[in-house]
Amino acid sequence: MLRPLRFAWLSVVRQPARAGLGILGVAAVGALMFDMLLLSRGLVLSFGDLLDRSGFDVRVLASDAPPFTGPRLASAGALVDGLSALPEIESVLQLRVREAEIAVGGGGDGAVEFVGADPRVRSMWTLVEGEDLPDEDGADPVVVVNRNLARRLRLAPGDGLTLGGRCGGAAAPPVRFRVAGIADFPFDAVTSRTVAGTLAAADRLCGEAPRDESEMLLVRSRSPAGAFAAAAAIRRAHSELYVVTNDELIERFSRVEFSYFRQISTVLATVTLFFGFLLIAVLLTVSVNGRLGEIAALRAVGLSRSRVIAGVLWESVILVGAGGLLALPLGAALSVWLDGILRSLPGLPAGLHFFVFEPRALVVYALLLVVTSMAAAAYPMRIVAVLPIAATLRREVIS
Amino acid sequence: MNAPIVEARGVSRVFPMPAGPVTALRDVTIRIEPGEYLGVVGPSGCGKSTLLHVLGVVDVPTAGDVLFQGRRVGTLPDAERSRLRLREIGFVFQRFFLLPMLTAWENVELPQAEAGAGRAERRARTEELLAYVGLSARAGHRPSELSGGEMQRVAIARALANRPRLLLADEPTGELDGATGEQIVGLLDRLHADGTAVVVVTHDPAVASRAHRLIRMRDGRIEEESRQ
Fold it and tell me: Are the C-beta atoms of residues A318 and A369 closer than 8 Å to each other?
């Protein structure tokens, strides 16, 4: 069996050192390129996943300022009731976020973030131990805490937690809470200390009389209307509010905040691709130049021009293909390592990843490798295509 | 007179060189008849190999015509010329030019596969050819495992793979010692006896003496032609 592919394979393996060098080079380059492809959309995908994981697909704020930094929504209770009545909306979760200090046993830095939410609406956190908040606070207010805080203070369901609100720069009297459960919060950083309680508990933490204000409303759209229809309905009813769907948020982040990563990954992927191209082009050119007599003899024997050109192309495909396959596990391992480094940046949500696999990345990777192998083979193929048979044979005999 | 296999009519070949054009063939006219055994001799650079290349359709003359079985080859597209070489012409080179990564068997099989021969047909023909050149026992060996004479015998088997009507050999004994060269010449004699037209370019008088017709070249011209 002497099909062109086997023929090319034999040509490749006849120089194992060259083939090994080429394959390893492509593997290194391919691993980097694969990682850059994972990085180019990794943050967007991961961020979208985080948003979706919260279980809400529309956010309502008083202004377009970043969450928890702008004005609060006034008459939040009525607003929640009004929005909940819209047919496109399934539920609305009112959030009040307060800063607090661990009053007992917090150590030097005892700052926590306190999230007040309506327990009657499905929460944005995922309970991992104990119980969720009751619908109404009793005399002993109840909270759930994130794992980091539970680990740090060795808290278990049923334990007490005393917090002092830091509201408007002033310290409020400490309030003792009972820990009902431990939960994961989607946007927590590794070092975050998060406590969630009722809306009333949030007010109580600051020693305030109940205020009908909220930093943000999380809205879950009703199926099949979807987020877009829900957002449109809210905008129609309250044009003064800033309403944003998860998709719009992702799109904005993709266009603005995450665009640096996309640009960096595009530049690095292009550079690595170029190095891969150069490596294979040089190896193939050297290989072809070392076999000119042999190729001329094959042409003299009657092998067609297209046949010998195809042989060079297949050699390129074999080198790039083998290296490209080897690059995948290499790239995957490298991406895990790099992801770990980037995720250790302070303040980032623990669930956020920079390198995220998606089938599309694999398809783009394969396409780029195919293009690279063809481009790298172009010059050596041209050498073979225009090779003067007689002159080459004569030169070989003289040399 | 038989129709010639290949015929050169007033053929010239000029190579452009940096120092000025070099004329390798000057107005050469020659016919190769079926079953003929032609020797081409002459000093180095006299145009012997160029003539062989022109007759073997691997080179195109600058002036004049080459007709292969009556077809003007100068106007044929490259693919057609490749097909002609594949099916009608066998080449034997001084340096063998076997593919080092293929076995003797595969080297002989290669032109047949290229010509589209079926597996069974290829197997039978390759067996036959390796037996013909006395290398059946070495079929699975790569060129690096063969002696010079064995490599040239494999090259001859490869040249005969598609039953060419014309075998062109360029210094086929040039890289071999006397005894081994004699084996190769004996093989060429046998080929000729079996009906293949053979053209041998050589410096070796012993090889040239086996040809039935001998042409002596000088400065790109046929200086002398004789029958032996």
Answer: no
Q: Is the pLDDT of residue B103 over 60?
A: yes
> Do the beta carbons of residue B190 and residue B37 sit within 8 Å?
no
Is A285 found in the same domain as A163?
A: no
Please count the structural domains in chain A: 2
Q: Which residues contact A255 (CB under 8 A, 6 or more apart)?
A: none
Is the predicted pLDDT of residue A107 greater than 70, yes or no?
no
Q: Identify the domain boundary among A240, A271, A288.
A: A240
Residues in chain A whose Cβ is within 8 Å of chain B: 2, 10-11, 13-14, 293-294, 296-307, 388-391, 393-394, 396-397
SS3 of chain A: helix, strand, coil, percent, to 5? 55, 20, 30
Contacts of B155 in chain A (CB under 8 A): none
pLDDT of residue A144 exceeding 60, the answer is yes
Q: Please determine, for residue A132, whether its predicted confidence score (pLDDT) is greater than 70.
A: yes
| Same domain flag for A144 and A214 | yes
Q: Is residue A390 part of a domain?
A: yes
Residue B29 gets the label, from left (phi > 0), alpha (psi -120 to 50) or beta, of: beta
CA distance A246 to A241: 16
**What ipTM, to 2 d.p.?**
0.89
Each residue of A109-126: pLDDT tens digit?
A: 688 999 999 888 877 888
* Distance between CA atoms of residues B226 and B146, nearest Å: 37
| Cβ contact, residue pair A302, B89, below 8 Å | yes
State the Cα–Cα distance between residues A142 and A197, nearest whole angstrom.
Answer: 6
- Over 60: is that where the pLDDT of B1 sits? no
> What is residue B70's DSSP assignment?
T
Q: Is the pTM of this model over 0.90?
A: no
A220 shares a domain with A130: yes
- The last residue of a domain, from among A209, A240, A271: A240
CA distance A246 to chain B (A): 60
Are A209 and A273 found together in one domain?
Answer: no
Residue ranges of domains in chain B: 6-227
> In chain B, what residues touch A13 (CB-CB under 8 Å)?
101
What are the Cα distances from residue A359, in Å, to A53, A273, A334, A366, B227? 21, 20, 18, 11, 75
The two structure tokens encoding residue A336: 């895990």
Residue A133, judged by CB atoms within 10 A of its CB (0-12, 13-18, 19+), counts as buried
B6-227: CATH topology: Rossmann fold (3.40.50)
Q: Among B15, B49, B110, select the one facing A2 at the smallest CB separation.
A: B110
